[in-house]
Amino acid sequence: MPIIDMISETLEFAKSHNYNKLGLLATKKTIESGLYSERAEKLGISIVNPSEESNKRLSSAIHSFLQNGLKEEQQEAVLSAVSELVDEGVEAVILGCTDLKAILNKRSIDVPLVDSLCVLTDVAVRALSGGE
């Protein structure tokens, strides 16, 4: 099994769908690392991060979800961050934390979501099946 770079694959997926301005939902540490924004820039993609306050609530919601299970306030923190990014004009939002899809739990979102875990899964299945 080859090593698969989830971030690069997620950004390539977004680029293949002609998304050029993406919101990023992830933990504070992931956003601060610049891993998504640095790689996105090389592909001509602009990354928009939530405000510092919104990202604090988002990171807290992720950690709370991991410790306590799903709660309404976690979903509200994620939806609020998505709304903020939509107001900034993003074309889609990257779920850059593998727990975010579970927190959203099929909630309706008004913007396309690029789920990094789904992208990784699809790439891994193709790699294992010998497909491109």
List the helices and strands and how they pair.
Elements (H helix, E strand, L loop, with lengths): L5 H11 L4 E5 L2 H6 L1 H8 L3 E3 L3 H17 L3 H16 L4 E4 L4 H5 L8 E3 H13 L4
Helix pairs in contact: 1-7, 4-5
What is the number of domains? 1
Distance between the termini: 13 Å
Rg (C-alpha, Å): 14 Å
Regarding quaternary structure, what we see is: single chain
The profile of the biggest β sheet is: 4 strands, parallel
Which fold does the CATH topology refer to?
Answer: Rossmann fold
CATH class: Alpha Beta
Strand content: 5-15%
Outline the low-pLDDT stretches: none
Task: Give the helix/strand class.
Answer: alpha/beta
CATH architecture grouping: 3-Layer(aba) Sandwich
Number of strands: 4
Give me the number of helical elements: 7
Pattern of helices and strands? HEHHEHHEHEH
| Overall pLDDT level | 91
Q: Which shape, going by the Cα principal axes? A: globular
| Share of helical residues | 55-70%
Q: How would you write the strand order of the largest sheet?
A: 2-1-3-4
